[in-house]
Prior knowledge:
Radius of gyration: 19 Å
Mean pLDDT: 83
Helix content: over 70%
Low-confidence stretches: none
Distance between the termini: 46 Å
Order of helices and strands: HHHHHHHHHHHH
Oligomer: single chain
Largest sheet: none
Amino acid sequence: MNLMSNILLNVLIAFLIGSILFGLQRKIMARIQGRPGPPVIQHLLHTLKFFIKESAFPRTAAMPFYIAITAMLCVIWVAAVIVGPVTGGSLLLIFAIYAIHKIVEHNAGSSSGSPYGKLSCVRAVYSAAAEVPLFAVLIIIYLQAGTMDINSIVNYQSIHGPLILTIPLAALMFFVLILSKSPYSPFAITKGKDIISGYETEHFGLLRGYLMISESIAWYMLLWIFLTVFLGPLSIPAYLVGMIIISAAVAFINAVTPLLNPNHSVMMQVTFAFVGIVGSVALLMI
């Protein structure tokens, strides 16, 4: 299989699995809360639906930036697929892509001119303050494995065992990052119910479809990174089982916890990060 075919196949897999896992989360949450819930493929159907709906553009939108930002969001997560599953490149590049995602998320809200979008983009900047300490995971992984290369980290674990056993607090920190990206998470302040759909509020039709594709790929990639970096070499069935288990755990947490206000959300994430960093450094020094 040539490189282009490999990229297209992995992007398609990421989109489909990410969409179904989002649907699975909603189904599990509904069952826990005593509701029937939507079908598991609902998120996938919604994504495809937007591509056949009419696109509308608010008068307050900053054109053409308003349109370009949705394509940029897709491109950066396609780039993550290329760096990760396709080439097994540098973990540092993956986190750089995530940092760019925060910038694009902010601009997606400000470009529409909507008060909901503007409030969401402010919260995106605010939430970044809580996520910056989580990048310490990179340093902890490097101190333990001696490399940032994904393939080398996998090889290290095949010899020394999964990193989740030696740096469990770093794995917990990364799990909190994954939890914060779930649509119904207690930490999901950028798309809280009080601001409708956050930075996506004024995006319709084709543009909303692109945003939903990027969300699905992003969710798949966060799970793939966690499983690859902390559990090592896995088979395809093991990846699927791992992604389902993590998504189910996230769904359970989302179903039984309320949405935190921005201040509490950031402080709780910073607390998790502080405990994780100090604890991980202490474990490495033992």
